[in-house]
Amino acid sequence: QVHLVESGGGLVRAGGSLRLSCATSGRTFSMYAMGWFRQAPGKEREFGAGIRWSGELTFYADSVKGRFTISGDNAKNTVYLQMNSLKPEDTAVYYCAGDRNPTPTMRLRSMMPYDYWGQGTQVTVSS
């Protein structure tokens, strides 16, 4: 059993920063890729940022590009999301996800390839 646990969420004012962390516990093996998704109230869960460990390729949704940075430690299956210049529209529950199998990078922007999900951490940005 693999568990992903997010932390670092909270309340911040617009323009502020937060750093989310996602740690893996339980049965450990190397993930192919990890990602951050988010879900705002009344909306579908959407892709935010991803990292493919091979070549440490990172990729972002247009809505967060230039403001968010994903990084991590492959050996520890730990991933971070540094969020700067936060906006009220960034308010959402943020979920960490892990993909165990090789997947075309474009597909990593969807939920389908990810095998493991955390419970989420709330991020609230006030105006």
Could you describe the 3D structure shown?
The chain has strands at residues 2-7, 10-13, 18-26, 33-39, 46-52, 57-60, 68-73, 78-83, 92-99, 116-117, 121-126. With 127 residues, it is mainly beta. Strands 2, 4, 5, 6, 9, 10 and 11 form a seven-stranded mixed beta sheet that branches. A four-stranded antiparallel beta sheet has the order 1-3-8-7, with no helix packed on it. The model has no long low-confidence stretch (mean pLDDT 94).
Can you tell me the overall shape? globular
- What is the terminal-to-terminal distance? 40 Å
- Helix count from the secondary structure assignment: 0
Name the helix and strand elements from N-terminus to C-terminus, one letter apiece: EEEEEEEEEEE
Radius of gyration, taken over Cα atoms and rounded to an integer in Å: 14 Å
For the largest beta-sheet, the strand count, sense and barrel status come to:
7 strands, mixed
Q: Count the beta strands.
A: 11
Structural class: mainly beta
Percent of residues in beta strands? over 45%
The overall pLDDT average reads 94
Helicity, as a percent range: under 10%
Regions with pLDDT < 50 over 5+ consecutive residues? none
